[in-house]
Amino acid sequence: MAAENTMVIAGAGIAGVHAAESLRAEGYQGRVVLMDRDRQMPYDRPPLSKEWLTDDTDEASMLLRDPEIYGKLDIELKLGVEVNDIDPVRKTITAKDGSSYDWEKLLLATGSKLRTLSIAGDDLQGIFYLRRMADAVAMKQHMQHVNEVVIIGAGFIGAELASSLRKLGIDVTIVERSSYPMEAVVGRDISASLLNLHDRHGVNVILNDSVVQFNGESTVEEAITAEGRRLPCQAVMIGVGATPNTVVSHPQLEAEGGYAVNEFGETSIPDIYAAGDCTLWPYRGTPIRVEHWDHAVNHARTVAQNMLQPRSTPYTYTPYFWSDQHGSRFQYFGHAKQWSKTVLRGSLESHAFTNFYLDDQNRVQAAFIANQPKNALPVRRMIKQQKVIDPEALADETIALKKVPQKSVMNNT
């Protein structure tokens, strides 16, 4: 089939798979090529730190789609294909194995890659980064004879791993270099509340320290910290964040901090689009990057529509992510690098609350919800509408969220 009837998607993760499906759902009849460097069928990554580790799911149920779906939708799934080069003039994409594909439109859905650490002894067995299914399989096999685990990093991945391991009865120590993990995202009070939750479930959290050495014969037996702590362990899990995977590069492709795209998913090169974790996209005029399942799905679907009908559907998504820890469900809506004030609805002690992040005009920019899922819809509406909120009414649980007084900015001036 000619290149003018071919859509190529680089990356078969959450974004890539949903983009391919959306092309078909929108009626595209041409060739759809979905490629990935991984040799395994496309799978869902979030459960790797949750259900997979605790035996609540199996490998087959981790797949994003039944393998037969790709054939039914006439999606050419090319696994084990690592992209080597793109030529935007000839509109070709080349893999390291020498294979080459022509395209009408190209979508980069390459996801993110883990940050790694260089620590003495990090070549010992039993030290893991959790990104791919192969990592999770090796980790799960190793964990069968483990009693003590050290986790480096108290972000959401580290916290979820700690929760899963405690469910298995394993002793867990988290080592975190900051005083309040994720303070820049959720604020100090919420960070302290999360730390308290882990403490109540038997997780030993060490703050203001870092691991500088691993000891052991062939398998890790001990982690040494900068402050001189000696932490016995039979496994180490490292979760210190991720960076956008911009391995597919070209001099004309703007990719500092992620592939820079406009509201339609277009990159700096015509007919090349990008979606999901690998992108830097405009949220209310500010370029941001979001590494979460919900964004990957919705961004991919929107960008697929624009690949077929250019600039037809702007992406107006409100960022959202969730995390399950020790039986609690946490949800975060919006995006706020800074805020003028916070308003707490509920109590931190009950672990059932909603914390709002307001700007200087008392408009809700973001909200962190703990075990109050019913608040999700009104919170999302407040963030989208950007109306001025009465802070006192917002904190008053006797007033339903949907009835909290609001007014437009214009009426407030």
TrEMBL record:
Residues annotated as domain Reductase C-terminal: 320-404
FAD/NAD(P)-binding domain mapped to chain residues: 7-300
Secretion signal, residue range per the UniProt entry: none
Keywords from the named record: FAD, Flavoprotein, Oxidoreductase
Lineage: Bacteria, Bacillati, Bacillota, Bacilli, Bacillales
Bilayer-crossing regions: none
Entry's Gene Ontology molecular function annotations: oxidoreductase activity, acting on NAD(P)H
Cofactor(s) in the UniProt record: FAD
Record-linked Pfam families: Pyr_redox_2, Reductase_C
InterPro entries: FAD-oxidoreductase/Apoptosis, FAD/NAD-bd_sf, FAD/NAD-binding_dom, FAD/NAD-linked_Rdtase_dimer_sf, Reductase_C
Keyword presence, Oxidoreductase: yes
Species this protein is from: Lentibacillus salicampi
UniProt-recorded name of the protein: Oxidoreductase
Protein's UniProt keywords contain Oxidoreductase: yes
Recorded GO CC terms: cytoplasm
